[in-house]
């Protein structure tokens, strides 16, 4: 994967953020570009284009991104268009993804809903709330 390849063109508008191996971050990150986590991030990641969790990386919170590649640990819900779970990654939380690949040795503990888009999943959730007598956010 060419996440931090030498010929990356930063003028192209593609932005990279890194939580390095020695780093601990607590709070919500709203990332417009790509994020790589090799340390510990305690909090949610919102609006990212790509989220890559390295083998020693850990996210303790929800992740919303177009593409998520997990090689480490995510303890929280994941909502993505594409999710790739590498060996020996571990995800503990519910997953909503349009597409998902799980390598042999990758582990998931939670509910997985695969297919459709994140927007469709949110609409379904609102419809389910209506059927159960809860108020809708429409």
List the helices and strands and how they pair.
Elements (H helix, E strand, L loop, with lengths): L15 E4 L4 E3 L2 E2 L3 E4 L2 E3 L2 E9 L4 E3 L2 E8 L2 E3 L2 E8 L4 E3 L2 E8 L4 E3 L2 E3 L3 H14 L7
Parallel strand pairs: 1-4, 2-5, 3-6, 4-6, 5-7, 6-8, 7-9, 8-10, 9-11, 10-12, 11-13, 12-14
Distance, first to last CA: 40 Å
Low-pLDDT windows of residues: 1-11
**What is the residue-mean pLDDT, rounded to a whole number?**
85
Contiguous helical run count: 1
How many domains, in number, for the residues? 1
What percentage of residues falls in helices of 4 or more residues?
10-25%
How big is the Rg? 16 Å
Shape: globular
- Beta-strand percent range: over 45%
Q: How many beta-strand runs? A: 14
Q: How can the largest sheet be summarized?
A: 8 strands, parallel
How does the helix and strand content classify structurally?
mainly beta
The run of helices and strands is: EEEEEEEEEEEEEEH
Task: Explain how this protein is built.
- The structure is a single chain.
- The protein is mainly beta and 138 residues long.
- The chain is built from one helix and 14 strands; from the N terminus they run E-E-E-E-E-E-E-E-E-E-E-E-E-E-H.
- It has one domain (15-131).
- Helices cover 10% and strands 46% of the residues.
- Strands 1, 3, 4, 6, 8, 10, 12 and 14 form an eight-stranded parallel beta sheet that branches. Strands 2-5-7-9-11-13 form a six-stranded parallel beta sheet, with no helix packed on it.
- The protein is globular.
- The termini are far apart.
- 28% of the residues are buried.
């Amino acid at each position: 994967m060419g996440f931090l390849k030498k010929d990356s063109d930063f003028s192209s508008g593609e932005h990279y953020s890194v939580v390095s191996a020695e780093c601990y971050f607590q709070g919500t990150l709203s990332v417009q570009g790509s994020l790589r986590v090799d340390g510990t991030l305690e909090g949610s990641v919102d609006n990212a284009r790509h989220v890559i969790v390295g083998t020693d990386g850990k996210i303790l919170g929800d992740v919303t991104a177009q593409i998520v590649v997990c090689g480490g640990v995510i303890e929280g819900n994941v909502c993505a268009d594409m999710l790739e779970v590498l060996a020996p990654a571990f995800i503990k939380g519910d997953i909503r993804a349009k597409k998902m690949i799980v390598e042999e040795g990758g582990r998931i503990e939670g509910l997985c809903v695969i297919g459709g888009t994140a927007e469709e999943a949110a609409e379904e959730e609102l419809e389910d709330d209506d059927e159960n007598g809860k108020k809708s956010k429409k």
